[in-house]
Amino acid sequence: MSKVRSDGEPVERMAKLMAELYYFMAKEMVERMGSELGKESIRAAIHNFGKARLVSMKEEAAERGLEINSETYTKVRDMPGISWERNPDHPEDITYCPMQDMWTELGDQELGTIYCEIDDVLYKGFNARLDRPLCKTSGDKVCRFIVTEV
Prior knowledge:
5 strands, three-stranded antiparallel sheet, Muramoyl-pentapeptide Carboxypeptidase, domain 2, 6 helices, alpha+beta
């Protein structure tokens, strides 16, 4: 079980709790449906979740008169990035992710890797391509986000 405490930073607590909920739901899907179908279902749910988030984010962009691109994505992103830490010398590198931290605590990075696919959906929805050659849920020391316009 997680060790989320009430005195922790609120955004980090919510991110960890969201990651924990995702983990238990995903784990249950794999256990009940089998690995292949379970992971396929998790992946579909994550992609649908990303598409649903895009609707609201694009609506906000339109209300603010902003073009749909990677710069706008950073302005209307619905998930706060307060508790994620970046390398100041390499801002494309995320050195701490509270969600990955929770999955490590729970002992299952593999299911977390599927969740991370949501970033591809979100960037693509803002006409950008995300290349992530390094990902903490895959055992790397950082998540490297290389974003280019398409």
